[in-house]
# Entry
Amino acid sequence: MEMYLPSNCYRDAELVPKAIVIHYFSAINVEPKDAYSLEIAWRLMMDLNLPKDQRLWYLKKTNDSDKRFYASAHCFIDRDGEIALTVPEDRQAYHAGRSEYMGRKNWNGFSYGIELIGSATSGFTDAQYIHCAKHCARLMREYKIGLDWIVGHEEIAPGRKKDPGIATGNFDMVRLKRLIKGQYQLLASKN
# Structure
């Protein structure tokens, strides 16, 4: 499904993905009754990219900072596993922030960002793992991304970020990578 964010939500700079970063995102702090709604998460992400006085929705929910947050990712994967494309695959999203890992800095410039709809304590559904693995396998095959270059946000921004929750057990990266390997082999066998 395509739910592209407005162009102010990402950089108009070319991206050829060499890595994939897994995150989580929800509206738990501004809309707790619908915290895991894909549409509300999309709207929240859109508003985070506007100056406070231009926000359409987030402004009504909190009196947070006046700053623009610069937050986006290439796709959301909702609790049912549906993938919503939010930033064009060939553009740089604002998902990594200050980042450094495996000798590389500025992960926004070379990585594809995936937001799983969830939170620090929600865990993730089987459907999210399966569809995330399929999406990652396709990206790996198309862009020649190695499995070691699929990481959690917490790995590239340690001390600053805790998503998707590998260290806390909220997210099972070993399971995801096992599923990705299976999907990658399936793709390879079809060609």
User: Anything to note?
Assistant: The first strand starts at residue 10 and ends at 14. DSSP finds five helices and nine strands in the chain. The beta strands are 10-14, 19-25, 75-77, 83-85, 91-93, 100-101, 104-105, 111-117, 150-152. Helices lie at 38-48, 58-61, 126-143, 153-156, 173-189.
